[in-house]
Amino acid sequence: MDLLGKTENSALAESLDIPVSSCSVDVHTHIFCWGENPEEGYLSENTRKMWKTRLVLRISGILSEPGETISEKMRNRLIRHIQTSGLDYAVVLAQDAVYREDGSRNDPDTHFYVSNDHVFDLARECPKILPGCSINPIRSDALKELERCREAGARLVKLHTAIQGVDPSRPEFDPFYKLANELGVVLMFHTGWEHSCKVVSQEFTDPRKLERPLDHGGPVIAAHCGSCAWYDAEQYYPHFVEMMNRYDNLFGDTAIMASMNRWFSLLRMSREEDWLKRRILHGSDYPFPTARLPFLLRTGLFPRERKNPFDLDLLVKSSFKFGPGYAGQVLKLLGVEPSPPPPGA
Ligand SMILES: [Zn+2]
Fold first, then answer.
1. What is the 3-state secondary structure (H, E, C) of 150-165?
2. Each residue of 126-157: pLDDT tens digit?
3. What average pLDDT score do residues 257-280 get?
4. With 0-12 CB in 10 A as exposed, 13-18 as middle and 19+ as buried, what is 57?
5. Which residue segment(s) compose the domain that 44 sits in?
6. Contact predicate 176/189, CB 8 Å
7. CA distance 9 to 327
8. Count of structural domains within the chain
């Protein structure tokens, strides 16, 4: 009997059963920039003025962090949280702009932007940070930017289907997918309905749209496993499962899946068969908070990990026992050799 199910035949998935599973990696975290230096990154004026944004600034206590500007405060907090967490690494994601069909950048329609150079800066400052670049394949210099980012050390590129207006099934993106494979860059796509920012189209977040990049054969990560909030008009998680069945080079990350509006999504996925769960990767979606209430029976009332948002998120998600490589196997996908522990550690 085939105890391991379909992944037993997959060289890619098999090669992931490796000792680095003892490492803890968060493959999906964010940094935001307020916009004091727009080259580095920004939130649009509309987004900054939104009552939701103002409220988050206030209740998160970010304004009392050390730092001259709001962006500096956000950067300092991210680095402090990563340094003091039990994680070995966190992939911090850039966020490319919206582009017009002629390949030119569309700043007026970009509401959330973080430059690739900014995440490279963060990675230089904090050795636990791995740079996750973002390139909109519509941009005229997409291939050049992909080469530049790989040369600068990026092993993962994220495409935000909904916010960046990227339909992954467009044939003209083939050269981009091909080059990513040749360079050994993992492609991550946002899947599932987006709620935190203005979107171009929610339809682009359907995991069925990933057929084309998956056909190129390299590893593809469906961020959020296609999960949607319980009140969304579409439910894409079944499409994620369908695609996991069809492609053994597809992986899913658990970013945002411990939030209040998707609290059920982890439990639902934990009931899948082992072959599927072995290709689930840990991601938090920091700084979006992890809900405590739905998981109290799993974490206890006052777990030690509650003091650090990365630790709390990993505690909640590890309790679902997705697979032995849940938090560590992504290092192999990224081709990153874990650095040896410091002497005396
Ligand atoms: Zn995210």
1. HHCCCCEEEECCCCCC
2. 999 999 999 999 999 999 999 999 999 999 99
3. 93
4. middle
5. 23-334
6. no
7. 22
8. 1
Report how far ligand 1's centroid is from the alpha carbon of 31 (Å).
Answer: 10
* Beta carbons of 270 and 254 less than 8 angstroms apart: no
pLDDT higher than threshold 80 for residue 190: yes
Q: End-to-end alpha-carbon separation of the chain, Å?
A: 43
Contact 159, 339 (CB under 8 A): no
> What is the distance in A from the centroid of ligand 1 to the CA of 8?
30
pLDDT at 16: 52
Is 246 domain-assigned?
yes
**Cβ burial, residue 287 (10 Å; 0-12/13-18/19+):** middle
User: What CATH number corresponds to the domain at position 80?
Assistant: 3.20.20.140
Distance 255 CA to ligand 1 centre (A): 6
Q: Decide if 107 is inside a domain.
A: yes
Q: How far is the CA of 4 from the centre of ligand 1 (A)?
A: 30
* Span from the CA of 114 to the centroid of ligand 1 (angstroms): 13
For the whole prediction, is pTM greater than 0.85?
yes
Beta strands 112-114 and 156-159, pairing class: unpaired
The span from the CA of 32 to the CA of 36, in Å, is 12
Provide the pLDDT confidence category of residue 10 given band limits of 50, 70 and 90: very low
Rounded Cα gap, residues 257 and 133, in angstroms: 22
Would residue 339 count as lying in a domain? Answer: no
Is residue 2 in a domain?
no
CA distance 213 to 232: 26
Residues 260 and 288: their CA atoms lie apart, in Å, by 11
